[in-house]
UniProtKB/TrEMBL annotation:
Tagged with keyword Lipid metabolism: no
Keywords: ATP-binding, Cytoplasm, Kinase, Magnesium, Metal-binding, Nucleotide-binding, Transferase
HAMAP family for the chain: Acetate_kinase
Name used for this protein in its record: Acetate kinase
The family this protein is said to belong to: Belongs to the acetokinase family.
NCBIfam families: ackA
Main location: cytoplasm
Cellular compartment(s): Cytoplasm
Lineage: Bacteria, Bacillati, Actinomycetota, Actinomycetes, Kitasatosporales
Residues the UniProt record annotates as site (Transition state stabilizer): 182, 243
Cofactor note as given: Mg(2+). Can also accept Mn(2+).
Length: 410
């Protein structure tokens, strides 16, 4: 039998998330996280979903190499080690592929060099992704390893959506343009929404709202992204857990000139201590909803600002697409927070959009419609699955058995 497992690795600056998937039946064989790499208090949590067994190891893990070796040992204990003949490939999440990488790509030295060249536009993410790639390549040099880029799905955006209105020569010199992120999620969810509607992706226009701790919206026409809310970096667009999203760029000059803040301080402010957290001290939507129930005005205002921005993007992408078949909510907030969905769509009957209170209140892990049967435009909740998307793209690239059918059916 040809190899049928794919290991998905998501290497962050101090963490490695991983999932080992069986491509024959989409089952998760192992799921885990190594966190606080480089600190004394590192931890690996390894779960085998089939048995429900979870193992935890605490203690210093010095670097990504040690982290991946620990992951390999954990997999070995379950008979799922990296040297198993059933392992077909490793799929790596890479945050920034610039304009260069429009597709998942088999990794070789030239690809590594190109990902490295993109470090100036993704200084936090690409170096960590590269460390994961290099370490995995050293452990299994003979195994196909594939880079799946967060930006790739958005490379179909027309120039009118992708360019900022600044001096074109300066923009070109420094590669300043809108790249967009969360691409594997937008790709997966837009396709799964078409399947939910019983249609082909080519035949539907969808607005995808990926609302997690990071949040982004996209306009997808016939399976191709035509606009998305994140830009050069994941800071632009919606209000997020700790990121401001859109703001007048002059706020930055003002904070420096008048507030005396340094560039790094403003960077930290906008990325780490703004968004819902900056507005009310909490970035978890569950906590914000609980506080609103208790009559907390600060939490209410944070929620209202979050919703106002979201509604503006729904309206904007409606205009970008012209005809919309579905608005779909995904990720932690989008999948779980019924009040967010209700408030985002309220009063938009003129656009053919409505939410059915009973359907919206249902909690489920399945893709589902929350709009009334009579609605002109579907409103849906589709749980995202970035690991499955990375695994299927990886498997398809290496010519895995039945890979195309798996992608279509997702
Ligand atoms: P993600 O980045 O997709 O993992 O989403 C994480 C965020 O989802 C958390 O910070 C919470 O704000 C939100 N979230 C998770 N579960 C719920 C829930 N039951 N209700 C509201 N928000 C939730």
């Amino acid at each position: 039998m040809s190899p049928f497992r794919v290991l998905v690795l998501n290497s962050g600056s101090s963490s490695v998330k991983y999932q080992l998937l069986d491509m024959r039946d989409r089952s998760r064989l192992a799921v885990g996280l190594v966190e606080r790499i480089g600190e004394q208090t590192s931890r690996i949590t390894h779960t085998v979903p089939a048995t429900g067994e979870t193992r935890e190891q605490n203690g210093p893990i010095a670097d990504h190499e040690t982290a991946l070796k620990t992951v390999a040992e954990e997999l070995d204990r379950d008979g799922l080690g990296l040297d198993s003949p059933d392992l077909a490939a490793i799929g790596h999440r890479v945050v920034h592929g610039g304009m260069f990488f429009t597709e998942p790509t088999l990794i070789d030295d030239a690809v590594i060099t190109e990902i490295e060249r993109l470090v100036p536009v993704a200084p936090l993410h690409n170096p960590a992704n590269l460390t994961g790639i290099r370490t995995a390549m050293a452990l299994r040099p003979d195994l196909p390893q594939v880079a799946v880029f967060d930006t790739a799905f958005h490379t179909t955006m027309p120039e009118s959506a992708a360019r900022y209105a600044i001096d074109a020569r300066i923009a070109d010199r420094y590669r300043v343009r809108r790249y967009g992120f969360h691409g594997t999620s937008h790709a997966y969810v837009s396709r799964a929404t078409a399947a939910l509607l019983g249609k082909r992706p080519e035949d539907v226009n969808v607005i995808v709202l990926h609302l997690g701790n990071g949040a982004s919206a996209s306009a997808v026409r016939g399976g191709r992204c035509v606009d998305t809310s994140m830009g050069l970096t994941p800071l632009e667009g919606l209000v997020m857990g700790t990121r401001s999203g859109d703001l007048d760029p002059a706020v930055i000059f003002h904070l420096q000139r008048v507030g005396g803040m340094s560039m790094d301080e403003v960077d930290t402010l906008l990325n780490k201590t703004s968004g819902l957290f900056g507005l009310c001290g909490d970035n978890d939507m569950r906590e914000i909803l609980r506080r609103i129930d208790e009559g907390d005005e600060e939490a209410r205002l944070a929620f209202d600002i979050y919703i106002h921005r979201l509604r503006k993007y729904i309206g904007a992408y409606y205009a970008v697409l012209g005809r919309v078949d579905a608005v779909v909510f995904t990720a932690g907030v989008g999948e779980n927070a019924a009040p967010v969905r209700q408030a985002a769509i309220a009063g938009l009957e003129g656009l053919g959009l409505a939410v059915d209170g009973d359907l919206n209140a249902v909690r489920s892990d399945e893709p589902r419609l929350v709009s009334p049967a009579s609605a002109r435009v579907a409103v849906a909740v589709v749980p995202t699955d970035e690991e499955w998307e990375i695994a299927t793209q990886t498997y398809a690239l290496i010519g895995g058995e039945g890979a195309d059918e798996k992608r279509k059916g997702s």
